[in-house]
Design brief:
Order of helices and strands: HEHHHEEHHEHEHH
Distance between the termini: 73 Å
Strand order of the largest sheet: 3-5-4
Structural class: mainly alpha
Number of helices: 9
Strand content: 5-15%
Helix content: 40-55%
Number of strands: 5
Radius of gyration: 21 Å
Shape: globular
Mean pLDDT: 93
Largest sheet: 3 strands, antiparallel
């Protein structure tokens, strides 16, 4: 794959690139353009750090970021989460959907809780199958790697460090929808009240309501 037309130059963290894409830019993340070693690993662009680099990463998470109380807790979190998508691609392109040059793997929304509620409802409208959320780990794992690997919709609060350092709003949530499921969301728009459908009270329920009101009179 070649670099997309109009892709911004420079090096970016994934959590930073998400905001850039929201604001209209096209970001092409590769081993060279990803400035976060952990992000490169979570996206499957590079192997997990080994040796001294791995030891330094664990020490940073426990004693620097202080997101885990111990290396054991960090290991447990990684073991219980989906693995990165190694070998899938050498580029991870983030862009506004209207600028996408090819069919996306995931459609990602930076939204508020009400909008997230509507998206999840639209997703479950046609199947009734609730999403299997994975809300632990780095933001890039939650919003890109997990939905790509599993095909599951995910709702992310983001990891605390990326939320704080990149300036996300307090009310921001990230909802990631695999493209094949996003098509179902679009089909549900005119049928579900979480989309554009009109709320209606069926006549059967009205009869029951009138009957109960007459008994109370």
């Amino acid at each position: 794959m070649e670099k997309p037309d109009g892709a911004a130059r420079g090096r970016y963290r994934v959590c930073e690139a998400l905001l850039k894409a929201r604001d209209g830019e096209i970001i092409d993340l590769t081993v060279q353009s990803s400035s976060c070693r952990g992000g490169s690993w979570h996206l499957g662009l590079a192997e997990r750090p080994k040796g001294e680099a791995d030891k330094a990463l664990k020490e940073f998470l426990v004693k620097g970021e202080k997101l885990f109380c111990s290396i054991t807790a960090f290991h447990r979190a990684q073991y219980l989460c989906a693995a990165p998508p190694f070998g899938l691609a050498e580029h991870v392109v983030l862009s506004p959907i209207e600028k996408a040059e090819f069919e996306p793997d995931v459609v990602l929304f930076i939204c508020n809780p009400l909008q997230a509620c509507r998206l999840v409802t639209l997703d479950t409208y046609s199947t009734g199958v609730p999403p299997k959320l994975e809300m632990c780990g780095a933001t890039c794992h939650q919003v890109v790697a997990y939905p790509v690997v599993t095909g599951e919709l995910n709702v992310s609060l983001m990891d605390y460090t990326s939320r704080r350092l990149q300036g996300y709003k307090d009310e921001d949530l990230l909802v990631s929808i695999p493209y094949h499921r996003f098509l179902g969301v679009m089909r549900s728009l005119d049928r579900c009240t979480a989309g554009r459908a009109k709320f209606e009270v069926p006549e059967s329920l009205r009869r029951i309501s009138r009957r109960e009101q007459s008994l109370d009179a």
